[in-house]
């Protein structure tokens, strides 16, 4: 089985780009370098979309790229965080 760095299919590439966009927007929002009028849940949708595209690439297109781990892990982190916030609000 051969592993590559970047996915070859469109769903895998979308997943990687969405996760990079999610990380960049959250970093800009947290550092207050730019005052973005985007709410955090709207930015989190990018991570969940990256998770969906990443899972589609892995299971349907048999994607075995190393960079597909990033959107899946980031998306699972956002889903776990959202679930915990809904279960145990503070």
Structure description:
With 90 residues, this protein is an all-alpha fold. It has a domain at 14-26 and 38-49. It is 68% helix and 0% strand. It contains three helices and no strands. It has helices spanning 10-31, 40-59, 69-87. Helix 1 (10-31) packs across helix 3. The chain is globular. The protein starts with 9 loop residues before the first helix and ends with a helix. The relative contact order is 0.22. The model has no long low-confidence stretch (mean pLDDT 93).
Q: How would you briefly describe this protein structure?
A:
With 90 residues, this protein is mainly α.
Rg, Cα atoms, Å: 14 Å
DSSP strand content:
under 5%
Query: What assembly state would you assign to the polypeptide chains in this entry?
Result: single chain
Order of helices and strands: HHH
The total strand number stands at 0
- Percent of residues in helices comes to 55-70%
**How many helical elements?**
3
Termini, distance in Å?
A: 46 Å
Structural class: mainly alpha
**What is the overall shape?**
globular
- Which residues form runs of ≥5 with pLDDT under 50? none
Keywords: Membrane, Transmembrane, Transmembrane helix
Transmembrane segments: 15-34, 40-59, 66-84
């Amino acid at each position: 089985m051969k592993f590559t760095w970047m996915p070859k299919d469109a769903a895998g590439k979308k997943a990687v780009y969405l996760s990079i966009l999610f990380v960049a927007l959250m970093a800009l929002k947290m550092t207050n370098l730019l005052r973005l009028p985007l709410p955090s849940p709207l930015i989190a949708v990018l991570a969940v979309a990256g998770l969906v595209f990443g899972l589609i690439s892995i299971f349907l297109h048999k994607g075995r790229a190393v960079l597909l781990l990033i959107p899946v892990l980031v998306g699972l982190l956002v889903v776990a965080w959202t679930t915990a916030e809904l279960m145990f609000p503070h």
